């Protein structure tokens, strides 16, 4: 795959990722391989059906989920998407998680790996009532003055 084809494939995936919703999930097979490797702070699995279930689960837990891709870079072997996930948790305030996805493309231009990198402790766990206080205290103790 040449650079123009790679760029077009990454662009199609970014557009799909930004439009991700329960209604667009059936289109996942057009954008990822059947044996796609997916990893985030909660999951590590192989297979498009599992990836679809993980996204469906996310949409069940959260309201008004959307991804905003802020920057894209790629090399001969991978693409990197810097994004913000915006969501509400069942009528709560709007929340944001910032992260980066490492994307590998197959020869046909579909995504064969989607590896998410984001700080679950600082952006999610610290917001929880009991454990959040413990984690914030621990973070303060480990910070360099």
UniProtKB/TrEMBL annotation:
InterPro entries: NTF2-like_dom_sf, SnoaL-like. Residues 15-114 form the SnoaL-like domain. It comes from the Bacteria. This is Nuclear transport factor 2 family protein.
